[in-house]
Amino acid sequence: MSVITAVSTASDQTPSSGDNPERRQQLTVDALLDRAEVSIRVDLQELESLLLLIAQKPIPLDHLQRHRLMLLQANRLILETEFEQADVILDQLMKLIPNTTTTVRAIFFRAQIADILEDYQLAFLYLNRLDQYPKPAFSTSQQFEILTLATNLYSKAHAYKVASGFSKRALSLARKSKSKRLLCFAYRSKTDVLIASKKIDASKEVALEAINVCTKANLDIELAQSLINLSYWEYSQDNYAQQRILIVKAIALFKTHSFVVSMNSANLLLAEAYLLDNKILEAERILNDIFDDVIQLQVVPDLVLGYRIKALMFEKLGLPDDAMIYFKKYLAIQNVSNDLVRKINVAYLQSRFNSKIERQSDVISQIEVQNLDLMAKASTLTNLMILTTSLLFLSVSFYCFTFYRRRHSILMTDNSNFDDLTQLYKPECGANLAQQMMTQCCSQRKSFGTIYIDIDFMSAVNNSFSFDFGDIVLQAFAGKVNDLVQDYGIAVRKCGDLFIVYTPDIELDELANLVTNIHQSLADLTVDRQKIVVSCSIGWTWNNSVQSDKSNEVLSLLNEQASQALHQAKFNGRNQCVCYEEGKIDESLAEDDFRVSSY
After folding, report:
1. Which helix H or strand E contains 111, and what residues bound it?
2. What DSSP line would sit under 500-533, residue for residue?
3. What is the Cα–Cα distance from 401 to 410, expressed in whole angstroms?
4. Residue 99 — left, alpha, or beta (φ > 0 → left; ψ -120 to 50 → alpha)?
5. How far apart are alpha carbons 37 and 76 in whole angstroms?
6. What DSSP designation does 587 have?
C-alpha cells in the first residue's frame, strides 16, 4: 500500500460528525501533516509527495495547520542547506503569532541553523531560550532533539562533562519512549562525545550497541556514522585492515543516500588507514579521487586531515619538498581550526555568565510565553496586548543593547588573552587570573600550588629541525598540559618554552601526581604518529592553608619558590621534577625574571 493510499484509507475510516465532507477533508489534512512530520526524518521524496497532496486540497488550512505546514517547509529547507529561505519562512511564521508549541519549534530550528553556520553565540542564546520554556511545551521527540543539539554544542566547546550529561539524559529519554529511532540517535551521540573526549576504549561498547539498534531501525546514515565511530577503536588498536572494512561499509551507505561530505570524510579516513598500513598506492588512489572535492567544499576538519595525509604520504615516498608544501598547508588550516575552537569556547563561556543579563533574559522569555498565549486566546483584549507588547519591546531592546555590549567586550578581550600558538593564557591574563584565585584561597584559607615547566634543549630542537617543527612540539606539549590541568587550575605560556601552572585548593598528593603526569606527558609525545624524543624540567611548590591578607605577596613568593626549584632541576641535570624545600634549594641559581636560560 502506498503512503498516500494508506493516509486516505485511515482518514476514510475516521468517524465524522454528521457525515460532513468538509470535516472529513480537515481530518485528512491533519493526517497528512502527521505523516509528513514522520517522513521528513527518513524520506524526503515521500515528504514532497505529501506536501504536494496537501497543497491540492480545495479547503483552506486553518491557522494551526498552516503553522505546521510552514514548520515542515522550514525543516525541509534546513536539510537541503537552504538556510536563508528557511529563515524567511520562520520570520513569516513568527509574524502570524503562533502558539507556544510552534514558537519553541521555530526557536529550535534557528538554533540548528546557527550551529551549522558556526554562529555559536547565537546558537547558545537560542539554546538558553529553549531552556526557559516549560517541558509540556515539547513533545518527547522535540525534547530529545534539543538534548542532542545541546550535546553537540557543548562537545564542540570541549565541555565534555556537560555534553556527557546531556547525552545521558537523551539516552534515558529514548529508553523511556521505547523508540528504536531515538535509541539509535542517542547511542550514536554518546559515542561521539566519548570519541571527542578521547575515551576511545569506552566508546567501543557504545558504538556496537549503536550499530545494533540503528540496523534494526533501518537508519542507514546513523548506522554509517556508528561504523565510522567503531573504526576509531580499531585505529587505536592498530587494526588497520578491520578499520578499512568498517569504513568501506560506511562509504557504501553514504553513497546510497548521496551524502557527499560524509563520503569525503570517510574516504580520507580510509586513505589514512591504507597509508598507516604502508599501502601507499591505495592511499594515493583514494586521495586523487576525492581531493578536489575536499578542497572545493572547504570543510575545515577534512582539509586538516587531507593535508596531513598528503604530507605523510610524500614523506613515505621520499619526496621531502612536496611533503613540506602540504605540511605548511596543514599548519595554516590547523590555525583556522584552532580559531574555530576558540570561537566555540568563547560562546560557551558567554553562555555560562550568571549575571543580571541572564536573569533579565529569563524574565523576558517568561513574558514572551505569557504574551504569545494571551494574543492567541484573548483577541478581545487588544489594548492590553498593545501595552504588553510595548513593554516587551522596550525590555528586549534594553536586553539586546546590554547583551551585545557584553559580547563585544568578550570578543575584544579574548583576542588578547590567549597565546596564538599554544592557545594557553598569555602572561598578563594568566597573572590576573592567578591573583584572583590566590585572593579567594587566602580568604577561605585554602591551599595553593604553583608549577614551573621548561622544555629541555628547545633551542637544539629548533636548530636541528626547524622553527616550524619546534612550534608543533610546543603546540603538542601545550595541548597535553592543558588537558591535564583543566580540572585543577590554569596553564600559562610565560615565554618561549617556559610554562606556568596555577592550581588553587589542591591537596599535596594531587599536586605531586599532576606534576608527575605533566613530566611523563613528554615521554610519549608524538607528532603525526612519529615519536619525538624530548624532555622537560619542572619546579613546583605548595602552600597549605594560605592565611595571609596580602595575596599578591603570597603569589610572588610561590612564583619565586617554583622558579628556584626549576633552576635546581636544570642544575641537577634536567629531565626531573624538584619540589621546593626551604633551606635545600640553592637560591643563587634563581633569576629575577624567573626565566630559565639555556645552558
Report:
1. helix 100-116
2. EEEEES--HHHHHHHHHHHHHHTTT-EETTEE--
3. 14
4. beta
5. 10
6. G
- H-helix or E-strand spanning residue 68: helix 63-79
For helices 160-177 and 180-196, give the axis angle rounded to 10 degrees: 170
pLDDT at 569: 92
- pTM score over 0.90: no
Nearest to 215 by CA among 223, 205, 207: 223
Q: Rounded to an integer, what distance in angstroms lies between the CA atom of residue 570 and that of residue 597? A: 10
The string of pLDDT tens digits covering residues 537-595 is: 999 999 886 666 677 788 899 999 999 999 999 999 999 999 998 766 665 554 433 33
H or E element that contains 384: helix 382-417
- The residues, ordered by sequence, that sit 6+ positions from 483 with a Cβ below 8 Å of its Cβ are none
Contact predicate 4/49, CB 8 Å: yes
Amino acid identity, residue 341?
V
**C-alpha angle 271/272/277, rounded to 5°?**
100
Mark out the alpha helices in 133-179 (DSSP H runs). 140-156, 160-177
Decide the pairing of beta strands 536-543 and 577-579. Answer: parallel
Total Cβ atoms within 10 A of residue 396: 16
Name the burial class of residue 59, with classes exposed (0-12), middle (13-18) and buried (19+) by CB atoms within 10 angstroms of its CB. exposed
Q: Which fold has domain 427-589?
A: Alpha-Beta Plaits (3.30.70)
Rounded Cα gap, residues 49 and 415, in angstroms: 50
Q: Cα–Cα distance between 523 and 483 in angstroms, integer?
A: 16
Q: If you search the block for the grid coordinates 537560542, which residue do you land on?
A: 126
Other C-beta atoms closer than 10 Å to the C-beta of 321 total 7
Each residue of 314-354: pLDDT tens digit?
888 888 888 888 888 887 776 655 555 555 555 554 554 43
Give 299-357 as a DSSP string. Answer: -HHHHHHHHHHHHHHHHHTT-HHHHHHHHHHHHHHHHHHHHHHHHHHHHHHHHT--SHH
Residue 42 has pLDDT above 70, yes or no: no
Tell me how far apart the alpha carbons of residues 265 and 294 are, in angstroms, rounded to a whole number. 8
Contacts of 465 (CB under 8 A, 6+ apart): none
The answer to whether the CB of 65 falls within 8 A of the CB of 32 is: no
Question: Mean pLDDT, to the nearest integer, of 68-80?
Answer: 84
d(CA 567, CA 587): 9
